[in-house]
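Why this split exists: single-chain examples teach little about how molecules sit against one another. For that reason, every record in the complexes split bundles all components of an assembly together and asks for one structure covering all of them. Below is a record exactly as it appears in the raw files.
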Amino acid sequence: MKLKDLAALLGLSQTTVSRALNGYPEVSEATRQRVAAAAEKHSYRPNTRAKGLATGRAMAIGHVIPISAQHEMVNPVFGDFIAGAGEAYAAAGYDMLLSLVQDSQEERVYRDMFAKGNVDGIVVHAPEMNDPRIALLLEIGLPFAVHGRASDITAPYNWLDVNNKSAFQRATDFLIDLGHRRIALLNGLETMDFAHRRRAGYVEALLSRDLAVDPQLMRSEEMTETYGYQAVRQMMKLAEPPTAYLVSSMISAIGVRRAIHDAGLVMGRDISVITHDDDLSYLRNGDDVALFTATRSSVRDAGRQLAQILIEQISDPQQAPTTKLLEADLTVGRSTGANMAGR
Amino acid sequence: MKLKDLAALLGLSQTTVSRALNGYPEVSEATRQRVAAAAEKHSYRPNTRAKGLATGRAMAIGHVIPISAQHEMVNPVFGDFIAGAGEAYAAAGYDMLLSLVQDSQEERVYRDMFAKGNVDGIVVHAPEMNDPRIALLLEIGLPFAVHGRASDITAPYNWLDVNNKSAFQRATDFLIDLGHRRIALLNGLETMDFAHRRRAGYVEALLSRDLAVDPQLMRSEEMTETYGYQAVRQMMKLAEPPTAYLVSSMISAIGVRRAIHDAGLVMGRDISVITHDDDLSYLRNGDDVALFTATRSSVRDAGRQLAQILIEQISDPQQAPTTKLLEADLTVGRSTGANMAGR
DNA sequence: CACATCATCCAAAGCGTTTTGGTAACGGAA
DNA sequence: TTCCGTTACCAAAACGCTTTGGATGATGTG
């Protein structure tokens, strides 16, 4: 069923039917009703490609997910983020176009998306410190919004980020208050902007309490379960092993917990752990009592909000960029305790 | 840069330029080169919507991801599956369109996708026993491929599945051989087809060895970490608690491990655990030695293969449906051991 | 009563491609 | 020479929608 058929059926012109369906005023209320009823009855849906061609809008938003070349890892956070964004798109009538792309190909993909015109905007995932994608998108003039920020880029653009620095600063402070002096940081890849900020928060907390920053206690890798496990195993062998760990993701924290158990120690008593918790749907942080002490921020909610920001930018391109900084909750669970050795 | 501009630039007609770029024979090799060079130089990319309108093909494939209404859970497997499928699409020039949808809205979404014509085919995720979506898609005639199967549907359609039944049967056999008699099954939601098959394999193994099937030892829920934890806590309180657990996902198995530890027991010595392992990129099953004994099948690879199947179906609609049954590996790790109590 | 205004509708152009149905030039065969 | 097949190109239609620029008749106004 196409517009022409529907119009013929109703004895009206395509113009009038189109206008009736799109809410233009030049149509009598009576015919509008009649058209709506017929459209409903024959379940008419305008062809996306034709509509897009005529209007110049794709009604779709692109997500380019970078796949790390070495580990081929898909960020576990991605599913929940997409779920949040998807809600916003569904409500606004947008489709979501996904591209998973090797880092090397990214520029080409962005340029192609623009040239082929199959998206009205783009969500940038996992920005690095001085991410070339942002300059690129600003240059080609395709609306976009970033999940996170790129520290080194001063030009304004839409972003939504968790205050990673303050979150990790508070977490570190919390551990210091508990008497910990040897605190390890199991960070994500510090080429990523968020990881860089987290480290900054950690370092600043240590320095402001006159504690040494020991490179032996700092790791930066992709946040897998085995990463957490291995890092703890190795750090335990140090002359002065850490009494507390600050971990960048629940997945790695699970590996940390495993290593602690394997060593015959008890998490929260012998060794303290704080993790960042993205509030993933399949990995809730305990039920009644939080399992881990954690800095928590819902990535799903972030997806919802960022999509909203981008949609608004697209519908009003003159609008100045929106930025939003979310504060993470610091919830105290059973994985932290006073440092007895330090007493 | 549009076709018209490029043609004008070259002093050729749109027809010739279009043909040159699309590899039609009615163009001299010399001009083909010239056109290709100019297109490259000005980085011309045909507009997707216009091309789609002219050809009638969307060059896009839809993935409809159901969001479970109660828990709002996003299956953690989803990211890696999509990554695999994305590779196949990128290679074949297809885009991937994603819709996350509440179960109730599913039918509408499928019908709309067809009517709006913005996909050439659909990948069906997480099929249930007698999934209405399959009948629906067969009815409307939109090419599709299913990740999994729907037991109750006899009509032929494209699918790719892991042999869940044999995998769980072998795993159960393995535990019985180790001397276990009280084996618990922590299954996924048994409205899902895969979970149903896993249970069938488990039951069949028990019966063929003359062991009782105890409903107290069987659970069926969404596969979260806390589900695994809670289930074990509760089953441990039984008069005759299980000595082994068969778990449907790594995530839940992690919860199982936590419960075992919390009880002061050692996994692999006091209690055995076998889990299904989808080989997720951020959750590898140990490194040198497998952490869990597991039935393993790469969901990423499944994504890649299923996408390929769908692409072939689309390019040759006459073709009979393809079906592919993958056997899972049974890798022995450190989470299983002989049942001492039984000796 | 003549004229402007308004409400309601329509024919046709346009969006950027592909594809249909040609034409012109050339070489070779009869 | 004439005719035919082939090669290399082109103008215009088509895809299904929106939007421009009227047209028509009814209504109000001076």
